[in-house]
Each structure stands twice: as C-alpha cells, then as structure tokens.
Amino acid sequence: MKSSRIVLLAAAVVLSAPVSAFAQSKAPAKSQQVKRGEYLVNAVGCHDCHTPMKMGANGPEPDMTRMLSGHPQGMQVPPAPASSGPWVVHAAPLTAWSGPWGMSYSANLTPDPETGVLRDFTEQQFIQAIRTGKHQGQGRPILPPMPWPAFKNMTDGDLKAIFAYLRQIPPVKNKVPDPVMAPH
Asked: Are 6 and 128 in contact (CB under 8 A)?
C-alpha cells in the first residue's frame, strides 16, 4: 500500500513537470511580445497624438497619468476655423484635428471596458484596421492624422505585439467624441 502511494506520487511529479515547464516557457514569450509592443508604441510615436500633453518645465510633454487615453472628454473644442489651402489645424493638447476630412479626435487606446476604442476589437480586427484604414477593419474610415498608410507596412508580429501591449496598459476612463466627417 505504501509503495503504491510512492509510485503514484512519483508519477504525478513526472507528469506535472512538462506542464510546469510549458507554462514557464509561455510566460516569457508573452512578456517578450508585450515588451516589443511597448517598444514599437514608443518608437512610432503613438503618444504624440494619443497621450494628452501637459505643460512641463521644458514645454509640452505627454501626461503619462492619462497615457494613450486620447482626447480628454472634458475638453470642449470650438468649431475649427474654415479650412483653406493645405492647412491642417490642431487643438491643444494635440488630440483634436481639423482639415478637409472634417474633425478627428485621438482615440482612447487603453483597455477601459466602457470607453477604450479597442474594447471590442479582436487581435485580427486590430490588424485589419491598420491594414485597411477602416474602423475594426470594415467600418468608417480612420481619419488623419492617424498614419495607418505607413503603419500598414508593419509585420503581423509587430501589430500583434502592439495589440498585446495596449491590452495590458492601465485603463483610463475617457469617452472621446466621435469624429465629424466633412460634408461632401
């Protein structure tokens, strides 16, 4: 009886070892993907438009307490001056834009379950959105100044890394206004 318990215990240890090793190998891979996503978000300048600016000692700087939360919901933007020529107008804190396309606001990219724009996106929809310039890969156009025509050239691995990173940053509750399309 005692020897059968020892055999069962030894079998349990042997069987759990591969599972444990597998779990350990998956965790670092995810961490590497998230780190790659963080690197890409910083390198391609996502904060420039999606993180509101605040005035710092050396001028405007990203307000990292509202990291990637988009245009502040409490900031009302008056109608933009009439567009003429090649001019594009932006409003402080660099999260609202006006041009021939209409008015666009930087989206809340945080995983907030109520206000984050990516809350209903799958990884595949995120990739399709960047590849096609369409919301969720099939909806309304993604408006300027979002540089999706350049970002669409990223690899699937890069876009998956960005999506993985954005899914785990701190959520910020911030309802961004809907874009206003210019009349045609």
From this structure: no
Dihedral sign (CA 37, 39, 43, 47)? positive
For residue range 35-52, list pLDDT tens digits in order: 999 999 999 999 999 999
Phi/psi of residue 35, nearest 5 degrees:
-60, -40
- Hey, what are 153's tokens? 């050239």
pTM to 2 decimal places:
0.79
H helices of the chain, in order, are 2-43, 46-50, 123-132, 148-151, 156-168
Residue of 134, 135, 122 whose CA lies nearest to 163: 122
Residue, of 173 and 15, whose pLDDT is higher: 173
Q: 80-111: b or e for each residue (b if 16 or more CB lie within 10 Å)? A: beeeeeeeeebbebbbbbbbebbbbbbbbbbb
Q: Determine the distance from the C-alpha atom of residue 172 to the mean position of all C-alpha atoms in its chain, rounded to a whole number.
A: 12
pLDDT tens, position by position, 50-77: 999 999 999 889 999 999 999 999 988 8
pLDDT at 28: 61
Tokens encoding 146: 């979002």
CA Rg value for the chain: 22
